[in-house]
Specification:
There is one protein chain. With 295 residues, the chain is mostly beta strands. Helices cover 5% and strands 58% of the residues. The protein has a ten-stranded antiparallel β-sheet, with no helix packed on it. A hairpin with a 3-residue loop joins β16 and β17. The radius of gyration is 26 Å and the shape is elongated.
Length: 295
């Protein structure tokens, strides 16, 4: 008799702390624990394509060992045991002399008995690297009206499990996303006479090989951008909503998953306008314009 398919339930517990020390060091930390009942995932099923009751190959299951005489499926099922996951994260930002700031964070996430689940042909699709970290260094005004920011991000490898991945590949955790790191940098220039800020920068610099974050996704290369933001209240009151014009041009490299065929995309990103009331009924418009070009 088929078992009843039930909704998944989870009990979550989280403990966190955030504190500011000597008005210079900001600490942010948390830890969590999840307990799942009726955990839902994919179960791999192997079928004899040429089943014959009187056949010795079918009786002994030999047809299940040959790719030409078997069918492989994956279907959602509930786990009967309690599945647990837990993790933690720690972040810190420190204000250095002369307006410099140094910060970073690290996180850890894991699913209990992931390897034991894999042996049974179960696919939990956790799809999360165990470790990730970020380190950043910045100065809002290193010299008059000029600032910069830079950061390095890294994450470890993990198995990507999904219905788009062949069940035999996914269940054996062969669909691995490699570890990668990216370096991002940006320079900002305040143009007070124009009530504007010019930003020039790039992401994933110095990584010509690029990176992928999911099975079947294209490889992402380097992105460069130039952004000009106009702010009517640049030297005025601190308003919640105000007139702003924003123009961005972006150049981005994409490569197909096989690293051979390049993808060329040009996309118009956003054009919107909204009006809201400030003060004694004064109407203020907000206009944002973006243009993105991808290569």
């Amino acid at each position: 008799k088929p078992s009843e398919f039930k909704p998944e339930t989870v009990r979550s517990y989280e403990l966190g702390y955030k504190g500011l020390f000597a008005n210079k060091l900001l600490i942010d930390a948390y830890a969590y624990f999840n307990s799942f009942e009726n955990f839902i995932g994919g179960q791999v099923l192997v079928q004899d394509k040429n089943y014959v009751a009187t056949s010795l190959a079918s009786t002994l299951g030999l047809n299940l060992l040959n790719a030409n005489t078997r069918n492989i499926y994956s279907m959602p099922v509930n786990r009967t045991e309690t599945i647990k996951s837990w993790g933690w994260a720690l972040g810190a930002d420190y204000r250095l002399p002369k307006n410099y700031t140094l910060g970073g964070n690290v996180s850890y996430n894991t699913l209990q008995d992931l390897e034991k689940l894999t042996v049974t042909g179960f696919q939990p699709s956790f799809n999360t690297p165990e470790y990730r970290y970020v380190v950043n260094f910045a100065n809002r005004e290193i010299v008059k009206n000029i600032g910069f920011a830079m950061s390095y991000r890294w994450q470890g490898e993990f198995a990507w499990q999904s219905s788009i991945v062949a069940p035999t590949v996914s269940s054996q955790q062969l669909s691995v996303m490699p570890a990668f790191g990216t370096f991002d940098a940006q320079m900002s220039i305040k143009m007070k006479a124009l009530k504007s800020i010019l930003k020039i920068g790039g992401s994933n610099l110095f990584n010509s090989a690029g990176y992928r974050q999911a099975w079947g996704n294209p490889t992402v290369g380097t992105m460069y951008f130039v952004s000009l933001t106009f702010d009517e209240f640049f030297n005025g009151m601190n308003a919640v909503t105000h007139n702003a014009g924003h123009f961005t041009f972006v150049r981005r490299h994409y490569f197909a998953a096989n690293h051979q065929q390049a993808m060329f995309i040009t996309q118009y990103v956003s054009l919107y306008q909204n009006v809201t009331a400030l003060g004694l009924g004064q109407m203020v418009g907000c206009f944002d314009f973006g243009l993105r070009s991808e290569f």
